[in-house]
Write a structure and sequence with these properties.
The complex is a heterodimer of chains A (167) and B (116). Chain A is built from 2 helices and 12 strands. Chain A has 167 residues and is mainly beta. The termini of chain A are far apart. The chains are: A mainly beta (167), B mainly beta (116).
């Protein structure tokens, strides 16, 4: 699958050595959230002094730095894209939050060059948090997309369970 | 933000003093030829190591500063910088180690993380 990326990004990808840093920006939205949650995988700049927090400023929004491990979705044409997020399970409140979620949150995944944070180099289709696994060390989330092409068609079937008179 | 007490020594001793650059590189070795190197993150912490000699009063002030003000050494604080002004630092993996130098003098050695 071909993508349109900037020449600076392409140069950084192919360079033997480069000072460019690629940051992954996550925008998490949900009906129960008062405001979207913005997360960055790079501590580009210090956002606040007290408490000391780091993050990335992109398009006027502050993305807070969180050491998240992101597995990007593949570009396979015959399967829906799947991504994965892994966080350190340092606070048990995260487990309570995961258990309390009743509907999936939407996650927008974007890649930027830190040297040019207002330009989105690669963005992925809107993903949803499909499943969560956790243990004592890590919490991981599977991000999936509604793969409508895997839905069965037609929606209803004439089966003995529903229409016994036909059989 | 807590500040390093003015009654304590303002600089580390020359003996044993060292500053380590923040390691930010992601290095991938190849089968042959030079390794590929890129930056992993924009910012990272540098390391500063050294020691100070304090008298009894300064020792008490330092212990109070670490245990009470910094909540056991967990909070970042402003520390005098070599170039002047202050820099934001935090105690590293090991908290200060105390060694008596004489009946009235004590040497504290510690490692500070220089926050970006």
């Amino acid at each position: 699958m071909s993508r349109t990326i900037s020449s600076g990004f392409r140069q950084a990808l192919w360079a033997q050595e480069t000072g460019e840093v690629v940051a992954c920006l996550l925008t998490i939205t949900h009906a129960e959230l008062d405001a979207p949650i913005y997360i960055s995988t790079d501590p580009t700049t210090r956002l606040t002094e007290d408490p000391v927090t780091y993050g990335t400023v992109s398009r006027g929004k502050n993305y807070s730095y969180l050491p998240v491990s992101v597995v990007l979705p593949e570009d396979a044409t015959d399967s829906a894209p799947n991504a994965r997020l892994e966080l350190d399970n340092t606070d048990r409140d995260l487990i309570n939050l995961v258990r309390a979620i009743t509907s999936p949150a939407n996650v927008q995944l974007e890649l930027i060059l830190v040297s040019n944070p207002d330009i989105v180099e690669i963005d992925f289709p809107a993903l949803k948090i499909g499943a969560a696994q956790y243990d004592a060390q890590t919490v991981s989330f599977d991000l999936t997309i509604d793969a409508l092409f895997t839905e069965p068609f037609p929606g209803n079937d004439f089966l003995p369970s529903g229409f016994p008179g036909l059989f | 933000m807590p500040t390093w007490p003015a009654s304590l020594p303002q600089f580390l001793l020359v003996d044993g003093f060292e500053i380590e650059f923040a390691e930010n590189r992601l290095r991938s070795d190849n089968d042959a030829g030079p390794a590929k190197v890129r930056r992993r993150t924009t910012l990272n912490v540098g390391i500063m190591r050294g020691s100070m000699v304090m008298d009894c009063a300064q020792k008490a002030t330092f212990q109070t500063f670490v245990n009470d003000t910094l909540l056991g050494g967990t909070i970042a604080f402003d520390f005098p910088a070599l170039e002047g002004g202050t820099q934001l630092v935090r105690f590293g993996p090991q908290l200060p180690v105390l060694k008596p130098v004489s009946p009235q003098l004590f040497s504290f050695s510690f490692e500070l993380e220089i926050l970006p």
